[in-house]
Amino acid sequence: MFALSGLFSTTVILSWFGLSDASTTLAIVVGLGATFLIVAAFGGLVNSTIEFVAYRRLRNAPRLAVLITAVGMSFIVQNISLAIYGVNAHSIPPLISTNNIFSIHGVHYSWDAFFVVLVTAPVLVLLSWLVKSTRQGKSMRATSQDPEAAAIMGIDVNRTISFTFALAGALAGVAGVLYVVEFNMRYDTGFTLGLIAFTAAVLGGIGNLTGAVVGALIIGLIQAFNEGLSWFAPGSDWTRSLVFAILIAILVFRPEGLLGERTPEGA
The pTM is what? Predict the structure, then answer.
C-alpha cells in the first residue's frame, strides 16, 4: 500500500499538477498539500476495499489464516503496482530546497529533511489525539483488546475495523508522498521498509504510539551510525542484518517492547 501510494503520488504531482523545480513556491505548497489529501484518500479507499474483500470474512478465522491472507494481499498489491508503473524507479523533481538550515561540526541539516519533520510531527499528534481522546479511538482500542466484549458494550466492531483499515491506508499514503519527495520509488520499495517499520514497532511496543516513534528513532540512529561511521561499524552491507538481529533479540528477551506492557497470552 505504501509503495502503490507513493507511485500514485508521482502521477498526481507530475501529471495532474505539473509541478517541477521551476514552479513557484505557492504552486508547490498548494500542489503538495492537495497531493497529500488526494493520496491519503486514495490509500484509505484502497485499504478499505482490501479489508472488505479479503479480511471481513476472516473475522473469526484462526490468526494464521489472516496472516497468510495479509502476505497474499501484499503480493497482489505489489504486482498491481508493477503492472501499472513497471519495474523502473520513479521520482519527482526536487520540489523542496536541499540547502542547509544549519551545519554543526560537519553534520548538515537541510530543508528537505526538515519538511519530513514538519509534516510527520502534526500527523503523529493528530493520530495520538484520535486514538486516545476520541470516541472512535476508544472504540478502536476496545476492539483491539476484546472484540466480543466491545460488541456487547454497543461498539460496531465491523465499522471500527473498517475505519482502522482506512486510517492505516491514509497514513500509508502520506508516508508514500513523503518518501517520493526525498527518494526514488519502485513497486517493491515498501517490502524492506515495511519490515524495518515492523521492527521499530516491535522494539517500541506493539500498540504503543509513543513506543513506535521511539523504536523508529532508535532503528534510524543505528542505521545512520552503521552506515556513516568508519570505526567500529560493520558497514552498510550489514544494516539489514543488524535490524533483524534486533527484532529477534526483542522477540526473545522482551516481546512486549521497550514501552509495552506484558499481558497474559490470549489477553
Answer: 0.89
CA distance linking residue 37 with residue 97, whole number of Å:
22
Which are the contacts of 164, defined by CB distance < 8 A and separation ≥ 6?
A: 140, 143
Alpha-carbon distance values, 185 to 8, 10, 191, 223 (Å): 10, 9, 12, 20
Average model confidence (pLDDT) across the chain: 89
- Cβ neighbours for 31, distance < 8 A, ≥ 6 positions apart: 13, 17, 19, 23
CB 212 within 8 A of CB 128: no
Give the number of other Cβ atoms within 10 Å of residue 167's Cβ: 21
115 and 244 belong to one structural domain? no
Torsion angles phi and psi, residue 90, rounded to 5: -115, 150
For 166-223, how does the pLDDT look when each residue is reduced to its tens digit (9 = 90+)?
A: 999 999 999 999 999 999 999 998 888 888 888 888 888 887 888 888 999 999 888 8
Grid cell in block for residue 204? 517500541
Residues 195 and 169 in one domain: no
Please name the residue that has the C-alpha cell 503523529. Answer: 124
Domain end call among 137, 163, 187: 187
- Sign of the torsion angle spanned by Cα atoms 177, 178, 184, 190: negative
